[in-house]
Design brief:
The complex is a heterodimer of chains A (372) and B (319). Chain A has 372 residues and is of the alpha+beta class. Chain A has two domains: 276 residues, ABC transporter involved in vitamin B12 uptake, BtuC (Orthogonal Bundle), CATH 1.10.3470; 72 residues, no CATH class. Chain A is 60% helix and 9% strand. In chain A, the strands form three sheets. In chain A, strands 2-7-3-4 form a four-stranded antiparallel beta sheet. In chain A, strands 1-8 form a two-stranded antiparallel ribbon. In chain A, strands 5-6 form a two-stranded antiparallel ribbon. The termini of chain A are far apart. Chain B has one domain. Chain B is built from 13 helices and two strands, in the order H-H-H-H-E-H-H-H-H-E-H-H-H-H-H. The longest helix of chain B has 30 residues. The termini of chain B are far apart. The chains are: A alpha+beta (372), B mainly alpha (319). At the A-B interface, helix 4, helix 9 and helix 11 of A face helix 4, helix 9 and helix 12 of B.
């Protein structure tokens, strides 16, 4: 594949993740005029949830045949990430933003900054500050099924997980590799591990990592955004809830007078926005391979910039802005001399300032002017 | 012990200068800026680069003093000039958009510094000692000198801001905060006064930056991140936007709590300090969004009158 095409695809898949996050920003801003700085942290929590589901929940041990089991464990991780992020958003809205409904904009904005910092630092306490490698999807194979795989080669390593007891008497988990990627699998290698134990019981199988090809990952991300956006579009334009959301965003007072429970609509907006951010978090982790508590801040800020670029309050705008920003952020450093790659993170902010100066309504937004 | 206190006093006083400058922008003129750490960085790095450029190999005290004054002036002017660069385009924006644009500028400053080899890149910049060398036996005079300089800077800032705020110019700024459209109808030149507040606030941040560079003699780009900006903002908001004594009080309280008292606690509890601070920011916003003093000055509060003043003639009951 040509260099340009490859970089373009990198930019588009990055842009899709920005778009996932930007959709939530733009929905929340559209409905309560709040730059929800904590949105990037919802994304982070989504990513961590996916990490824990894939690494520790044991979803790959569900009794399912091979390719299906990967799809199921991925779907479960996706659902868990999205729901964890969405629930956190609803709770945050309830505890931090709802009491400030009638406060000044500055107070609310500062609260959002505070919540963002709070979640980052809670993240450090709960998840620890160090960067963690994101797990690949993996397949679980029981020992009795092992001979059937003899002679096959896998894209990822195969390994057993077991506990070892240290001299001090505490136990920790370890992995032992039984087949490297690309070399034929030999069930004989399992013999020496079969007696090992995990959680007090003898282990009965091993794992094979099944990494998705990077090209496929990029294409899947783009496909996921298309599906999510279509669903969101239908939700906003074809359902009662969507109509209520548009009404509250258009005029909250009038919407309340028409009998719309605006509090519930705002909660729903946070839920949907963070649901998408959670998906973005999982996808980010699988694409870039790591998670840490600060991971949400910069992508969150950039997603906000994407939302401004596309026109804040506009759903297609968030997608367009995200895609443009992602492509610019990949292509500009790719074609500059290597000593400028450090400026990569500056691209988004320069885009932000340019768009605010020349077209503050964004590419697809309507500028309603400041309300006084 | 005295040494330890003076060192903290210096840092605290520099933060006060920063917070007072931001209060002029945020609290008195009502423009929500999130990029104050950018001005601080520009001042610090301008002073540092200037010092490295002009200092001879072994400066005498006179030369050192000259370089110090020059670099401090350079820091202030560079930050003020950067205030113009940011202000002219950004001040057409309002509210959230202004906040996010200034935040963008603050980040751009840090990214540029981080990638400029002449400024030391990510490793940072080291400047020579100018006024006194910080040796083993000169620790105390060194910190005492800088504590005095920093307090002088606070006094100068307070004095300048008071003078500005009591003048017509200051009233114009406050009018902008209260109601931009009404102020414009009364003939206040919005752009002029907004820019003036921005430049003045940035200039004080530059002063703090220059002093910071000379005091620590080592600066790194990551000290000037967004977190610094949020902390400065926290001092302003907690003290009360539009109250100078509030800003001073909040800076002192938070600094002492954060940097001095918490250090006495066991490390397991200290690990939660950032969580506690973020939580405090949220709680203050929910429970007392106007800050400790609101827009009043300390001497205007009821408690102060009761403690330090006899009933004034106007309030005294008629005989």
């Amino acid at each position: 594949m040509s260099y340009l095409l490859e970089q373009l695809l990198n930019g588009l898949s990055l842009g899709c993740i920005y778009a996932f996050v930007a959709l939530g920003y733009t929905m929340v801003y559209g409905i309560i005029k709040l730059i929800n700085f904590a949105h990037g942290e919802f994304f982070m929590v989504g990513s961590f949830t996916g990490f824990f589901v894939l690494a520790f929940a044991g979803v790959e041990r569900l009794p399912l045949p091979y390719p299906l089991s990967l799809v199921v464990s991925f779907s479960l991780a996706l659902l868990a990430s999205a729901l964890a992020s969405a629930l956190l958003a609803v709770i945050t809205e309830r505890l931090a933003y709802r009491p400030l409904q009638h406060a000044s904009r500055i107070a609310v904005l500062l609260t959002a900054l505070g919540v963002s910092l709070l979640l980052q630092n809670l993240g450090i306490q709960v998840f620890s500050a160090e960067q963690k490698g994101y797990p690949e999807l993996r397949q679980y194979v029981a020992f009795e099924d092992a001979p059937a795989l003899q002679g096959q080669t896998f894209d990822g390593p195969a390994y057993v997980v077991f506990e070892v007891e240290s001299a001090l008497g505490d136990t920790r988990q370890e992995q032992a590799f039984i087949a490297q990627p690309g070399t034929p699998f030999d069930p004989q290698a399992l013999q020496e591990h079969k007696h090992r134990r995990l959680h007090g019981a003898p282990i009965d199988g091993f794992y094979i990592e099944r990494p998705i090809d990077v090209l496929w990952k990029k294409l899947l991300i783009i496909a996921a955004l298309v599906i999510a956006f279509a669903a969101l579009w239908l939700l906003v334009h074809r359902t009662q809830l969507g109509r209520a959301m548009r009404a509250v965003s258009y005029n909250p007072e009038a919407a309340r007078l028409m009998g719309i429970a605006s509090g519930r609509v705002i909660s729903a907006t946070f839920f949907i926005g963070a649901f998408l951010a959670g998906i973005g978090g999982l996808v980010w982790g699988m694409r870039y391979g790591k998670v840490e508590p600060f991971m949400g801040f910069l992508p969150g800020l950039k997603a906000f910039i994407a939302a401004v670029l596309g026109g804040i309050g506009s759903l297609p705008g968030a997608v367009v802005g995200g895609l443009i920003l992602g492509v610019l952020e990949v292509l500009i450093p790719a074609y500059l001399p290597s000593e400028y790659t450090g400026y990569k993170d500056g691209v988004a902010f320069i885009v932000l300032i340019l768009i605010l100066l020349f077209k503050p309504s964004g590419l697809l937004g309507r500028w309603e002017g400041e309300k006084v | 012990m005295l040494y330890y206190l003076l060192e903290h006093l210096t840092h605290m006083a520099l933060l006060m200068v920063l917070a007072l400058g931001l209060n002029l922008i945020n609290g008195y003129t009502g423009m929500f800026s999130l990029g104050h750490h950018g001005f601080f960085a520009v001042g610090a790095y301008a002073a540092g680069a200037l010092t490295l450029a002009v200092t001879p190999a072994a400066p005498s005290l006179g030369v050192g003093l000259g370089v110090f004054a020059l670099s401090a002036l350079g820091g202030v002017l560079a930050a003020a000039a950067f205030g113009v660069v940011v202000g002219v385009p950004c001040l057409r924006l309002r509210g959230d958009y202004l906040a996010i644009a200034t935040l963008g500028f603050g980040e751009i400053v840090r990214i540029i510094i981080q990638n400029t080899e002449a400024l030391g890149g990510a490793r940072g910049l080291e400047v020579p000692y100018l006024l006194l060398t910080r040796g083993v036996d000169t620790q105390l005079p060194y910190v005492a000198l800088y504590a005095a300089l920093a307090l002088l800077a606070v006094a100068a800032t307070v004095w300048t801001l008071r003078a500005v705020l009591r003048s017509n110019h200051g009233r114009a700024m406050i009018a902008i905060r209260e109601d931009e459209i009404a102020a414009e109808l009364l003939g206040v030149n919005l752009m002029k006064y907004k820019l003036a507040a921005f430049i003045l606030g940035a200039g004080f941040a530059g002063l703090a930056g220059a002093l910071y560079t000379h005091f620590t003699t080592q600066i790194e780009p990551r000290e000037f991140g967004l977190l610094k900006g949020i902390y400065i903002l926290l001092y302003v908001v907690l003290g009360g936007m539009g109250s100078m004594s509030g800003t001073l009080l909040a800076t002192a309280l938070l600094y002492i709590l954060d940097k001095m008292l918490l250090n006495l606690l066991p490390p397991e509890i200290q690990a939660w300090r950032e969580v506690a601070f973020a939580l405090m920011l949220v709680l203050v916003m929910i429970l007392r969004p106007q800050g400790i003093l609101g827009q009043k000055e300390l001497y205007q509060t009821r408690l102060w009158r009761r403690l330090f003043k006899r009933a004034s003639p106007a309030e005294a009951p008629a005989p």
